[in-house]
Amino acid sequence: MHNYFTLVKNEINPSLSADVPKVEVLEQELAWLKEHLSQLESPVVFCHNDLLCKNIIYDSTKGHVRFIDYEYAGYNYQAFDIGNHFNEFAGVNEVDYCLYPARETQLQWLHYYLQAQRGVAVTPREVERLYVQVNKFALASHFFWALWALIQNQYSTIDFDFLRYAVIRFNQYFKVKRQVSALEMPK
């Protein structure tokens, strides 16, 4: 994310739209994210980093799930990958954050995820801990893809309104930041 920010700061004029936060604001938010998220102790694992629904293939006849499109894959925080996956429920072309999974849906999903990962029963506290991590890292996902979209707006030849997408992601970041930052780790 830092590399994307550096590129935006040095080569792209984010103020090409009044709806895009100024570079100084972006720099402050990036520092806040780094400080805030580093305290969460989310493990670093191999992540897909772009697990939107179109990148998940389910073969119902065999009961197999396959992931495709690994161009952004690499080591990252576990909670980032899951938070990003939940953010992607909102879509890309027609973004609707009403589709972001509700708390109960997330808790159920995270319960199954942890059980599959560990191969043993998990406690509600462990699930709640991951829930807090995931929702806080979902903020980083918004910020990451907003920066990415600013870069794409400058360089991509794809027919897509990247600037609009960047604004949508920044807006959602700021909309949920206070509520998400208030989440506390279970005791």
UniProtKB/TrEMBL annotation:
It holds the Pfam family Choline_kinase. InterPro entries: Kinase-like_dom_sf (IPR011009). GO terms for biological process: phosphatidylethanolamine biosynthetic process. GO terms for molecular function: ethanolamine kinase activity. Its EC number is 2.7.1.82. One of its GO terms (cellular component) is cytoplasm. Signal peptide: none annotated. Keywords: Lipid biosynthesis, Lipid metabolism, Phospholipid biosynthesis, Phospholipid metabolism. Pathway: Phospholipid metabolism; phosphatidylethanolamine biosynthesis; phosphatidylethanolamine from ethanolamine: step 1/3. Belongs to the choline/ethanolamine kinase family. This is ethanolamine kinase. The lineage of its organism: Eukaryota, Metazoa, Chordata, Craniata, Vertebrata.
